Amino acid sequence: MSIEKLERLFVFLNSQPQKKLHVNWHGGEPLLAGKDFFNKIVELEKLYPDKLWSNVVQTNAILIDSGWAKFFSKNHFHVGVSVDGSEKIHNHDRVGATGKGTYQKVMRGVNMLRSYGIHPGTICTVTKKSVGFGKEMFLGLVNAGFKSIAFNAFHNTASESIGDLYGLSDKEWLTFLIEIFEEWVTLNDPTVRVRELDSMLAWIKSKSANCRVYRGTCHQWFAVDDIGDIYPCERLGKEIYFGNIDSIKTVEGLSTNPVYLKWKDSIVILHPKCQSCNLQSLCHNGCVSHRKSDNGDAPLYVYCESRLGFYNYLQSKLTETEKEKGHE
Ligand code: SF4
Ligand code: SF4
After folding, report:
1. Is residue 272 part of a domain?
2. Is residue 72, in this structure, part of any structural domain at all?
3. pLDDT tens, 150-165?
4. What is the pTM of this model?
5. How far is ligand 2, taken at its centre, from the CA of residue 286, in Å?
6. In the chain, alpha helices (H)
């Protein structure tokens, strides 16, 4: 993104009426934009002091040196690092230009961040190839010192041929989640938090979602690419296009845009199965990019059965624990 576009982007963001703005700098690899670009971000945020800016950068950490670590620490950026579990599993699919696995380089960057007091969370992608290695992946991340872990089920939306090789089935995802829960219980370390477990446990306890992924708020997010084109979310690809920040100059302009309004209405249509589901207020029919329509029905979350199955599994585990306590 050019500096001129970045400046335009901040004019656009500043038009948002709400005070708190959460900006996620995502790539490809966002650090390729360079330190001057990120310094400009901070400079522009200072031009709009009425806003409360919260910045997240999702990186593979390979480029992180002391300069980056110092910058993120000084400017209070949250950092998320993509690590796919253990060194062996990560290196299987995440390779550099020479074909060599990147795990060591990633961990060098992570350790640099830690030396500046930043403890990045990690997002671990689970594919059909890695799903059978739940324990190894979980313990790999724990042993590498990660305390905040999120697992993303890989569901290919762009190409069925890649999806066949990597996309997880509903059943595989459920088996994986249960395995991770059991390993987490065995670990017995409350400082290690796994998003998928945390959010379901919090919901069972308080009936409210503690994580925005589960709040059904896709319409409050939008993605802006390097040339200023605005889309609903990078996970949804570029099929639904709202316009460019040069023509849609304000967030109000976006919220009255007919394509946006049509999309917003379409994502809240519930599949008949969701209408009577007791997980509706946690799940909201799942991530919009992970929905599929069969037989002309409204689209349904592809991991619906694993969400229901995991909920039932946790409920029965909690009931068992309560009973055991009662017998003590
Ligand atoms: S668990 Fe399934 S039925 Fe329930 S809200 Fe989610 S997608 Fe719909
Ligand atoms: S489509 Fe999925 S990833 Fe994108 S904002 Fe909605 S829930 Fe989040």
Report:
1. no
2. yes
3. 999 998 765 445 546 7
4. 0.90
5. 8
6. 3-14, 35-47, 66-74, 87-93, 103-115, 134-143, 160-166, 170-187, 195-206, 251-255, 258-267, 272-275, 280-283, 304-327
Ligand number nearest CA of 299 is 1
Integer angstrom CA distances of residue 120 from 144, 211, 218: 11, 17, 24
Closest residue (by CA) to atom 4 of ligand 2? 233
Return the SS3 of 80: strand
The alpha carbon of 145 and the centre of ligand 2 are apart by a number of angstroms equal to 28
Q: Is residue 256 classed as helix, strand or coil in its secondary structure?
A: coil
Beta bridge partners of 52: 20
287 CA → ligand 1 middle, Å: 11
Structural domain includes residue 230: no
The span from the CA of 274 to the CA of 300, in Å, is: 8
List 123's β-bridge partners, or say none: 82, 150
Length of the chain: 328
Chain CA centroid to CA 141, Å: 17
Number of structural domains found in the chain: 1
Pocket test for ligand 2, best of 221, 222, 263, 268 (most atoms within 8 A of CB): 221
Tell me: the pLDDT tens digits for 27-46? Answer: 889 999 999 999 999 999 99
Where in the sequence is the domain holding 79, given as residue range(s)? 3-214
Residues sharing a CB contact under 8 Å with residue 276, sequence separation 6 or more, in sequence order: none
What CA–CA distance (Å, rounded) separates 115 from 109?
A: 10
How many CB atoms within 10 Å of residue 274?
18
At residue 307, does pLDDT exceed 60?
yes
Min mean pLDDT across 48-52, 133-137, 277-281, 321-325 is at: 321-325
Q: Which ligand is nearest to the CA of 26?
A: 2
20 found inside a domain: yes
For the domain that residue 127 is a member of, what is the CATH number? 3.20.20.70
Cα 243 from Cα 129, distance rounded (Å): 37
Counting from 1 in the atom list of ligand 2, the atom nearest the Cα of 288 is 1
